[in-house]
């Protein structure tokens, strides 16, 4: 059986969203999958608090990738998923956030299907939702933006190009994943296409976790402020949004925004 919908919930491989890191934001279905797993193949960004919820007998295998750094080869990850499931293990492929958002999900499903194995997707809360909740804003708003762009800052070829002229229009909003190293590139492309340098940009590090930090800045100041902040954790960049005044008691990095 290779169809996603499995009424017995007995898929050999489950692609599970771990959410942004706070274990309280994990779905009940994801928790049940973790508790029943024989092996959990997880991303680098999955928090220790989430991994601790796996069953006591589950084997935890870090198959994480680091942008522009040491990473598992994607083909090796796919081969491991298939080998573990073919051996009879209940496999959870645990991905930070939602597995369908920049998670190489299609490639892994195709490998599982090619091996004649069954699979199921367990969605999770994506980082954009957690980040925008941290600043008390909405990703869409009547009269401001009726659409939202989810973008990646880099892809397999390096910094990722997008429709910068569309994004540069007033009122546009984007959630940029993996945009920390490409911040200067993103700034340059947007300004080149006419974006206002005063456009608000908010960076949220470790969204939803105890060490969450929020950095409000502008497009003009983005690279400099990011460098000065020394953000080492995963960062979600919210282009076109500033923290709502009522939540500016968060641990912000610039006193003038508090």
From TrEMBL:
Record-annotated membrane-spanning stretches: none
Keyword Transferase on entry: yes
InterPro entries, per database record: 4pyrrol_Mease, 4pyrrol_Methylase_sf, 4pyrrole_Mease_sub1, 4pyrrole_Mease_sub2, CobA/CysG_C, Siro_Cobalamin_biosynth, Uropor_MeTrfase_CS
E.C. numbers: 2.1.1.107
GO molecular function ontology, one term from the record: uroporphyrin-III C-methyltransferase activity
GO biological process per UniProt: methylation; siroheme biosynthetic process
Residues annotated as domain Tetrapyrrole methylase: 14-222
Cytoplasm keyword on record: no
Superkingdom of source: Bacteria
Keywords: Methyltransferase, Porphyrin biosynthesis, S-adenosyl-L-methionine, Transferase
Pathway: Porphyrin-containing compound metabolism; siroheme biosynthesis; precorrin-2 from uroporphyrinogen III: step 1/1
Family: Belongs to the precorrin methyltransferase family.
PANTHER family named in the record: S-ADENOSYL-L-METHIONINE-DEPENDENT UROPORPHYRINOGEN III METHYLTRANSFERASE, CHLOROPLASTIC, SIROHEME SYNTHASE-RELATED
Name the UniProt record assigns to this protein: uroporphyrinogen-III C-methyltransferase
